[in-house]
# Entry
Amino acid sequence: MTPNTPAKFRIENIAPILYVSDMEKSLAFYVDILGFKKADWGDDNFTSINRDNTGLYLCKGAQGVPGTWVWLGFDGDITELNETLKSRGVIIKLPPTNFSWAYEMQIQDPDGHVLRLGTDPDNQKPFADR
# Structure
């Protein structure tokens, strides 16, 4: 294989592994608040949470580092999502903001990971400068 030839394999999916300090607290956030489903095989040290066609792994006290940023593209009303999450006590790091790449908001999980929740940009609203 030459340096310019890509490695030959097919990516099945990509699922980040997030460090968590308290599995119960993290599952309450991801399952009860965000609507993910916990894998049947998971335990107090390592599990998978899934929603729709994607998921994340949660690892207690080991893999990953606190403060990881994860993009979650979604299809829905970002203003309604913002109000729902605020009413559930979620830390909103960035309220819904219209960028050229997405209409995005940022929330924080119990371990300081930042979830960037984005949907299609709203072409009727001005874009935020960055």
About this structure: Residues 23-33 form the longest helix (11 residues).
